[in-house]
Amino acid sequence: MSGVRRAMQEMGLAICCLVCDAPDDASSPRCRTCIGNHRDARDRLQQFPVERLASQWARELFQMNARPNAYEHDSNHGVWMRTYARLLAGPPELHRKITQADVEAAFAASRAERDVNPLRDIANQSPWKDAPPSDEEVRRFEEQLPTDVEYSRGRPTIPSRVIPEVDRSSRSGEDHELADRVLGAAAAQTAPSDLRDLTPELTAGERRLTRRLWKDLVDEIDALMEE
Fold first, then answer.
1. Residue 214 is part of which domain span?
2. Is residue 138 part of a domain?
3. What is the torsional sign of CA 165, 171, 172, 178?
């Protein structure tokens, strides 16, 4: 059995080296010829139209050789795929069983890695992102702050005051009657011909009823809260 050549491994054809009966000599003419033939076949395959059946079969063959473990349950080639997978995995004596210590070491290494935070590590260029400023720096900053700044606190809200209703007739987005007419006209476009004249008023009535039910519900909740 020959050793796996890097060129064949990069093409996903390492199994071809493992089943080859040539001497294990990377510089042999047979290896160079085999690598060249497989590279030419791969390049020619990429030029074939994907919809051609021969192209689909050839691509599947390359995939089966590159990932035989994914085809171990194939009804026709499963036996060979399992053999190829065992060859690619190497001899059993090279496989080491994962222990609890290995798992704990992997978790410890993961916890030791610092997570990259774009806002913290890239966008935040503050000199105090890792530690707060000292007391001396804070005092120096306070001395630089202006002292003639006036803050407007506004006027407090009086809950018992009656707030007059605002005239919203000039606000098309808040005019319910206008919105009812527009939506009613739009619904009439797709309504049956015998209901087309009634659809605008029916739509407006449904919307008015929905608003009234919602207002009654809100009033009931307000009354419960006042009690």
1. 176-226
2. no
3. positive
Amino acid at 153: R
Which among 73, 91, 109 is the end of a domain? 91
Please check whether residue 98 lies inside any domain of the structure. Answer: no
d(CA 182, CA 105): 68
Residue 201 falls within a domain, yes or no? yes
Output the pLDDT for position 93: 58
Helix axes 29-47, 53-66, angle to 10 degrees: 130
Compute the distance between CA of residue 185 and CA of residue 191 in angstroms, rounded to an integer: 10
For the ranges 75-79, 102-106, 165-169, the lowest mean pLDDT is seen at 165-169
- 141 compared with 115, residue with greater pLDDT: 141
Structural domains counted in the chain: 2
Average pLDDT over residues 128-152: 83
Q: What is the pLDDT averaged over residues 84-97? A: 72
- Is 146 within the bounds of a domain? no
Contacts 24+ apart (CB under 8 A), 60-64: 62/12, 62/13, 63/12
pTM, 2 dp: 0.37
Domain boundary among 33, 65, 91: 91
Distance CA 226, CA 119 (A): 46
Average pLDDT of the segment spanning 188-196: 82
- Residue from 10, 85, 6, 66 nearest 58 by CA: 66
Q: Which residues of 51-66 are buried (b: 16+ CB within 10 A; e: fewer)?
A: eeeebeebeeebebbb
